[in-house]
Design a protein that fits this description.
Elements lengths: L2 H31 L4 H11 L1 H19 L13 H17 L8 H17 L6 H22 L4 H37 L3 H28 L10 H45 L1
Helix pairs in contact: 1-7, 1-8, 1-9, 2-4, 2-9, 3-4, 3-6, 3-9, 4-7, 5-6, 7-8, 8-9
Amino acid sequence: MSGRTLKHLGTLILTFLLTFCLFVISTLCIVRMTVMQPDFTKLQLRRSGYVTYVTKSANTAIVNLGLGSGVPKTVFKSVPTKKVVTQDVAYFVDRAYAGAGIKLPAPKVRQALETKLTAYEKKADLTLTKAQKKAVDQLIDQAVNRYTNSIQIPYLNQIGRNVRQVQRYLLLTLIGVAVLGLILIFSLWRILHFNHRLWRYLAYALLANGLMLIIGPVALIYSRIIPRLAIKTQGLYQFVTTYLQAITWLFVIAGLLSLVLGLVATLSSELKRKQRLGG
């Protein structure tokens, strides 16, 4: 095998490894921007309309509880407002990602319940006994519990704990792969020097990375697997599908960006080749 053939083979191997590094770096960056960030989760909760569904569900649960205890429907109507639910959902997400537990005190909801019950007692001219006051306190506790159960997002606390466990390792992996990628680029430069061939092989790596990032997500989008997920509650379904679709489209966007950079590198290669031939 001639030295030129070995050089070409070595260049191809380095380009393949560089493509793999670019794909891993792109994937890890997207994971850090999405799954690892509570702000991304809160953004998808807002985009999906999850708060609207939860507000309606929480109000229905509290009203039904009141009706079961003989409290008119109008008394507990619209106790948790959309603004309060938005704040409590954000609080829940932050605590879940911080690993601080998911207990929601819900002071505003408790205060609203107490205010409405007090107003109802005065309007109906009721004088409560000690036992009745205790029953009212229990009713408020139950209503708050139903509200907090409506707010909680299933499995998010477990996801938050897992994120905290892998966050450091993911960052170290990202740094390690990035360093390896730089070493591979330096090795290509040592073999090809700073000429059109270096830009050509960089273009190969960027174009291949772009295709790898795009093909899987596009296939997932067109298969419509995400919209067909079997999730019982409408609010949770909207959140999960919106969350997964957002991540999927981020992979597509990253792939398109890599393709654009690959085309720029290809153009640079051609320009340098023509300059060399012209010189």
